[in-house]
Amino acid sequence: MSRQDPHSVFTTDSLAVAEFVTEWLTKKNVEVELVKHFKQSDGVGLTSLSDSESTTHLEVHVKNAEDVDRIKSLILENQESLIQEAQQLDQKVPEQIAIACDHCEEQVVYPGQMQGTVQECPYCGGYLDVPGGEDEFDWSVVDETISEDELAQQENDEDADAWG
Asked: Looking at the whole model, is its pTM more than 0.85?
């Protein structure tokens, strides 16, 4: 069972949000540090089958444990504006996105407006998925283990009656 550090005033899984809260508190003249915290584990759950109790998270810690209650109250008093500002962080488009080509391993840089698109590598001509953006298609419904031709054949086989 995990326990929270007594210096912790804020916990999240998002690095951008953790950095935002750390910067916000620093502007309020609060001495804080961002800590990557590994929850306690019994050694089980180090695979994709693990539950949330064994995952890593980020904590914002105050230097002085006596300030914890005051800082938590400060965060709660400002939570609405903090939530709005943190949500805007998630919606920002980066200026540039750098990725390594899967085919030739060259580093390629694209403008942030191209996030979520497929582009051609300028070095080898291979196709690259530029990460980020919103993808409207639900890719979880796609079975990549079956080609379209095999799928059509399976559907035809299922439609055929016992007499062929």
From this structure: no
* Boundaries of domain holding 40: 8-91
Q: Helix/strand/coil (H, E, C) string of the chain?
A: CCCCCCCEEEEECCHHHHHHHHHHHHHCCCCEEEEEEECCCCCCCCCCCCCHHHCEEEEEEECCHHHHHHHHHHHHHCHHHHHHHHHHHHHCCCCEEEEECCCCCCEEEEEHHHCCCEEECCCCCCEEECCCCCCCCCHHHCCCCCCHHHHHHHHHHHHCCCCC
Residue 31 is assigned to a structural domain of this protein: yes
Here the tokens at position 129 are 């998925």
- Tracing tokens 């590598």 back to the chain, one arrives at 121
The answer on 151 and 110 residing in a single domain is yes
Res 121: pLDDT: 93
